[in-house]
Automatic annotation (TrEMBL):
GO terms for cellular component: SMN-Sm protein complex. GO terms for biological process: spliceosomal snRNP assembly. This is Gem-associated protein 7. Coiled coil: none annotated. It comes from the Eukaryota. InterPro entries: SMN_gemin7 (IPR020338).
Length: 103
């Protein structure tokens, strides 16, 4: 049977591992949010599951990644000043004039 000291050491490793995992996830989430916020205003071309191509200006995404907020959406049926595009309907999205800085 493991001693109390060994048990405490093992549980401390799990806590440290969980703590490191939480910190890593927070770091990656912050990088993702910074990168997507840097794309705001970029022209994008979106291909949908219905095989239609729409164009718009990317202006953000909801916190769960389910909806894309766009402005000046142009579809085969017409134009919308503002719109939410569901990500489940998107096959791909190309950012045409992305304002990405490389170090």
């Amino acid at each position: 049977m493991a001693s109390l000291t060994e048990s405490n050491a093992a549980s401390q490793k799990v806590v440290n591992s969980d703590d490191e995992r939480v910190k890593a996830r927070a770091f990656l989430r912050e990088r993702f949010l910074r990168s997507t916020s840097g794309l705001v205003g970029s022209q994008c071309k979106i291909t949908t599951k219905e095989k239609s191509v729409i164009t718009a200006h990317y202006h953000g995404m909801d916190m769960h990644g389910q909806d894309i907020f766009v402005k000046n959406l142009t579809t085969p049926m017409g134009q919308l000043r503002y719109a939410l595009v569901r990500t489940i309907d998107v096959v791909n999205m190309n950012l045409i004039n992305a304002n990405v800085c490389q170090k």
